[in-house]
Amino acid sequence: MSLYTGGGDRGKTTLIGSRRAKHDPRVYALGSCDELNSFVGRARAQVLSVFEWHIMASELTMIQHELYDCGSDLATLKRGAEWKVTPHMVSRLEAWIDHYHEQAPEIRRFILPGGSVAASELHICRAVARRVERDIAALYESEDQLNPAVLTYINRLSDYFFAAARFANAQLGVDDVNYERSAIVFPAKDRY
Length: 192
Prior knowledge:
It is built from five helices and four strands. The chain is mostly helical. A hairpin with a 2-residue loop joins strand 1 (12-15) and strand 2 (18-21). Residues 3-168 form the Cobalamin adenosyltransferase-like domain.
Protein backbone atom coordinates (compact mmCIF):
# COMPACT_ATOMS: atom_id res chain seq x y z
CA MET A 1 0.00 0.00 0.00
CA SER A 2 1.25 3.46 -0.92
CA LEU A 3 1.38 6.32 1.60
CA TYR A 4 0.05 8.72 -1.02
CA THR A 5 -3.20 8.31 -2.93
CA GLY A 6 -3.33 11.39 -5.15
CA GLY A 7 -6.95 11.89 -4.08
CA GLY A 8 -6.28 15.43 -2.91
CA ASP A 9 -4.31 16.56 -5.94
CA ARG A 10 -7.23 18.63 -7.21
CA GLY A 11 -7.78 20.53 -3.94
CA LYS A 12 -10.41 18.30 -2.29
CA THR A 13 -10.20 15.90 0.62
CA THR A 14 -12.38 13.07 1.82
CA LEU A 15 -14.31 13.40 5.07
CA ILE A 16 -16.72 10.88 6.57
CA GLY A 17 -19.74 11.13 4.29
CA SER A 18 -18.51 13.80 1.86
CA ARG A 19 -15.64 15.37 -0.06
CA ARG A 20 -14.79 18.97 0.72
CA ALA A 21 -12.42 21.62 -0.60
CA LYS A 22 -9.18 21.80 1.34
CA HIS A 23 -10.01 25.42 2.20
CA ASP A 24 -13.45 24.49 3.61
CA PRO A 25 -13.99 25.72 7.22
CA ARG A 26 -14.44 22.13 8.40
CA VAL A 27 -11.08 21.16 6.91
CA TYR A 28 -9.48 24.24 8.52
CA ALA A 29 -10.80 23.11 11.91
CA LEU A 30 -9.45 19.61 11.32
CA GLY A 31 -6.05 21.00 10.38
CA SER A 32 -5.97 23.21 13.46
CA CYS A 33 -6.71 20.18 15.69
CA ASP A 34 -3.88 18.30 14.01
CA GLU A 35 -1.48 21.21 14.53
CA LEU A 36 -2.43 21.44 18.21
CA ASN A 37 -1.88 17.70 18.56
CA SER A 38 1.69 18.14 17.26
CA PHE A 39 2.39 20.91 19.77
CA VAL A 40 0.97 18.74 22.57
CA GLY A 41 3.39 15.98 21.54
CA ARG A 42 6.28 18.42 21.80
CA ALA A 43 5.08 19.67 25.21
CA ARG A 44 4.82 16.05 26.40
CA ALA A 45 8.43 15.39 25.36
CA GLN A 46 9.55 18.51 27.23
CA VAL A 47 7.61 17.59 30.37
CA LEU A 48 9.24 14.15 30.40
CA SER A 49 12.73 15.51 29.77
CA VAL A 50 12.56 18.12 32.53
CA PHE A 51 10.30 16.69 35.20
CA GLU A 52 9.88 13.06 34.35
CA TRP A 53 6.30 13.77 35.38
CA HIS A 54 4.62 10.68 34.13
CA ILE A 55 1.18 11.74 35.35
CA MET A 56 1.15 14.95 33.28
CA ALA A 57 2.75 13.10 30.38
CA SER A 58 0.00 10.47 30.47
CA GLU A 59 -2.62 13.25 30.56
CA LEU A 60 -1.02 14.83 27.50
CA THR A 61 -1.05 11.48 25.71
CA MET A 62 -4.74 11.08 26.53
CA ILE A 63 -5.35 14.61 25.23
CA GLN A 64 -3.60 13.67 21.98
CA HIS A 65 -5.96 10.71 21.55
CA GLU A 66 -8.92 12.95 22.35
CA LEU A 67 -7.80 15.54 19.80
CA TYR A 68 -8.02 12.73 17.24
CA ASP A 69 -11.53 12.09 18.59
CA CYS A 70 -12.32 15.79 18.05
CA GLY A 71 -11.02 15.49 14.51
CA SER A 72 -13.10 12.39 13.88
CA ASP A 73 -16.24 14.16 15.09
CA LEU A 74 -15.43 17.23 13.00
CA ALA A 75 -14.85 15.04 9.92
CA THR A 76 -18.20 13.27 10.30
CA LEU A 77 -20.97 14.54 8.05
CA LYS A 78 -23.22 11.49 8.29
CA ARG A 79 -26.51 12.06 10.10
CA GLY A 80 -27.03 9.87 13.15
CA ALA A 81 -23.33 9.15 13.63
CA GLU A 82 -22.16 8.26 17.13
CA TRP A 83 -19.92 11.01 18.54
CA LYS A 84 -16.59 10.23 20.20
CA VAL A 85 -16.14 13.36 22.35
CA THR A 86 -18.31 13.22 25.47
CA PRO A 87 -19.16 15.51 28.41
CA HIS A 88 -17.21 13.06 30.61
CA MET A 89 -14.00 14.11 28.83
CA VAL A 90 -14.77 17.75 29.70
CA SER A 91 -15.40 16.85 33.36
CA ARG A 92 -12.08 15.01 33.55
CA LEU A 93 -10.27 18.08 32.14
CA GLU A 94 -11.96 20.23 34.78
CA ALA A 95 -10.67 17.94 37.55
CA TRP A 96 -7.14 18.18 36.16
CA ILE A 97 -7.44 21.98 35.89
CA ASP A 98 -8.57 22.24 39.51
CA HIS A 99 -5.68 20.01 40.66
CA TYR A 100 -3.00 22.08 38.90
CA HIS A 101 -4.61 25.38 39.83
CA GLU A 102 -4.59 24.48 43.53
CA GLN A 103 -0.83 23.75 43.33
CA ALA A 104 0.14 27.09 41.77
CA PRO A 105 0.54 30.46 43.51
CA GLU A 106 -2.39 32.85 43.68
CA ILE A 107 -2.88 34.85 40.51
CA ARG A 108 -4.29 38.40 40.50
CA ARG A 109 -3.12 39.86 37.17
CA PHE A 110 -2.62 38.70 33.61
CA ILE A 111 0.71 36.93 33.19
CA LEU A 112 3.10 36.72 30.28
CA PRO A 113 3.32 33.31 28.60
CA GLY A 114 6.63 31.71 29.50
CA GLY A 115 8.90 31.14 32.43
CA SER A 116 10.40 27.68 32.14
CA VAL A 117 10.74 25.90 28.80
CA ALA A 118 8.10 23.35 29.83
CA ALA A 119 5.64 26.10 30.79
CA SER A 120 6.40 27.92 27.55
CA GLU A 121 5.54 24.79 25.56
CA LEU A 122 2.26 24.45 27.47
CA HIS A 123 1.45 28.13 26.86
CA ILE A 124 1.99 27.56 23.12
CA CYS A 125 -0.53 24.72 23.35
CA ARG A 126 -2.94 27.09 25.12
CA ALA A 127 -2.65 29.73 22.40
CA VAL A 128 -3.06 27.18 19.59
CA ALA A 129 -6.06 25.67 21.41
CA ARG A 130 -7.67 29.12 21.41
CA ARG A 131 -7.20 29.30 17.62
CA VAL A 132 -8.70 25.82 17.24
CA GLU A 133 -11.64 27.05 19.32
CA ARG A 134 -12.11 30.06 17.00
CA ASP A 135 -12.01 27.81 13.92
CA ILE A 136 -14.58 25.43 15.41
CA ALA A 137 -16.82 28.27 16.63
CA ALA A 138 -16.89 29.69 13.10
CA LEU A 139 -17.82 26.26 11.79
CA TYR A 140 -20.68 26.00 14.32
CA GLU A 141 -22.17 29.19 12.85
CA SER A 142 -22.36 27.71 9.35
CA GLU A 143 -23.10 24.01 9.87
CA ASP A 144 -25.45 22.00 12.07
CA GLN A 145 -23.99 18.48 11.82
CA LEU A 146 -21.55 18.94 14.70
CA ASN A 147 -20.97 17.45 18.14
CA PRO A 148 -21.51 20.29 20.65
CA ALA A 149 -19.12 18.65 23.13
CA VAL A 150 -16.15 19.30 20.80
CA LEU A 151 -16.30 23.08 21.24
CA THR A 152 -16.70 22.74 25.01
CA TYR A 153 -13.80 20.29 25.18
CA ILE A 154 -11.45 22.60 23.23
CA ASN A 155 -12.49 25.59 25.33
CA ARG A 156 -11.70 23.70 28.53
CA LEU A 157 -8.48 22.34 27.02
CA SER A 158 -6.97 25.82 26.75
CA ASP A 159 -7.71 26.30 30.46
CA TYR A 160 -5.95 23.01 31.18
CA PHE A 161 -2.80 24.19 29.39
CA PHE A 162 -2.85 27.47 31.32
CA ALA A 163 -3.16 25.69 34.67
CA ALA A 164 -0.53 23.09 33.71
CA ALA A 165 1.91 25.82 32.62
CA ARG A 166 1.53 27.66 35.92
CA PHE A 167 1.96 24.39 37.81
CA ALA A 168 5.14 23.62 35.82
CA ASN A 169 6.64 27.00 36.69
CA ALA A 170 5.72 26.57 40.36
CA GLN A 171 7.29 23.11 40.50
CA LEU A 172 10.49 24.41 38.93
CA GLY A 173 10.63 27.45 41.22
CA VAL A 174 10.14 29.86 38.32
CA ASP A 175 7.84 32.81 38.98
CA ASP A 176 5.15 33.74 36.50
CA VAL A 177 5.78 37.23 35.15
CA ASN A 178 2.88 39.62 35.64
CA TYR A 179 1.90 41.71 32.65
CA GLU A 180 3.16 45.03 34.01
CA ARG A 181 0.21 47.13 32.82
CA SER A 182 -2.45 44.67 33.94
CA ALA A 183 -5.12 45.72 36.34
CA ILE A 184 -6.13 43.22 39.00
CA VAL A 185 -8.40 40.92 37.00
CA PHE A 186 -8.72 37.93 39.32
CA PRO A 187 -10.36 38.65 42.68
CA ALA A 188 -8.40 37.59 45.76
CA LYS A 189 -10.98 34.99 46.79
CA ASP A 190 -10.78 33.32 43.38
CA ARG A 191 -7.33 31.94 42.65
CA TYR A 192 -7.89 31.67 38.87
